[in-house]
Amino acid sequence: MVAPEAPDGLGAEKKSLTEALLYLDGVTVTFDGFRALNSLSFTVDPGEMRAIIGPNGAGKTTMMDVITGKTRPDKGDVYFNGGTTDLAKLDETQIATLGIGRKFQKPTVFESHTVIDNLRLALKGQRSALPNIFRRESAAERALIDEIFETIKLTDHRWRLGGELSHGQKQWLEIGMLLAQDPKLLLVDEPVAGMTDAETAQTAELLREINANGHSVVVVEHDMTFVRDLGVRVMCLHEGSVLAEGTLDQVSANERVIEVYLGR
Ligand SMILES: Nc1ncnc2c1ncn2[C@@H]1O[C@H](COP(=O)(O)OP(=O)(O)OP(=O)(O)O)[C@@H](O)[C@H]1O
Description:
single chain, alpha/beta, 6-stranded mixed beta sheet, 11 helices, disordered N terminus, binds adenosine-5'-triphosphate, ATP binding, ATP-binding
C-alpha cells in the first residue's frame, strides 16, 4: 500500500491501521503456485459500505475466505477493529463471534421451519437449535425480531415456512438472520443473482438501510444496476489485486477495468 505522510506525522498506512474497521495489507494467497490474491491491500472504514466487482477468478471469494478465517494468507496483514485484532490468528468461529457475518451467494434458510423460527435460531448467543425454538424469547428478543422483520420487509410472512418464500425473500431472510447476530461487518456475496429487477432494487434499499443503521458492509456483485443503486465506493479486483477504486463512474471509466471486465 502506498503510504504518503499524513498531516499529523503518522504514515497514512499506520493511520489506516489504527482507524479502519477492516485492514488488509499485502495479502497473498497461493494455491498450487497460483496466486489467487496477489499483495491485496484495502481498508473498510467503520460505517462504510463498499462494493467489490471484478471478473471471474479475480479473487473475490478468496478475499472473503481470508477475512472470515476459512483461508489463511501466505503473507500479509488482516486486522479488524482499528488494528486491534489480527484476524489471521483466529479461526472461523472466533471471527464470527467478533462480529463479522457472511452471506454466501445461495440462500441457506431452514426450509421446513417457519420464517420467524429461522430468525429465532439466528439470535446472538443461541447455539443450540431446538431449545431455542421451544423456549419463550425475551421482550428484547421479540423487539429485535420485529425490528428485523420491518427491515427485511417480511413481517407479513413470519408464519410461512422458509421453503415457501420466493428466492428474493429467502435472500432477505438470510440477511435478517445475519442481522440477528448484530455484526459490525457484513460480507455479502452476489445477493441479487437470480432476483427480479424489483427484488434487486429492494435489496439495494435494504443494504443501504442496514448500512445507515451502523453496520459496515462489503458486497460483491456483478450487477452494475444494483451497484449503481447502492451509491457507494467501488473497488475492482483483478488477478488478486485492486485494479481500480473510486465512484462507480470513475471505476467504469478506467480503461483497464473496461478491458478486463466491463467491456467483455
Ligand atoms: N481451493 C482452491 N484451490 C485451487 N485454486 C483455487 C482455490 N480456490 C480458488 N482458486 C483459484 O483462485 C482464483 C480466484 O478464485 P476466486 O473464487 O477467489 O475468484 P472470484 O473472483 O470469487 O471468482 P467468481 O466471480 O467466479 O466467484 C481462481 O482462479 C480459482 O480457480
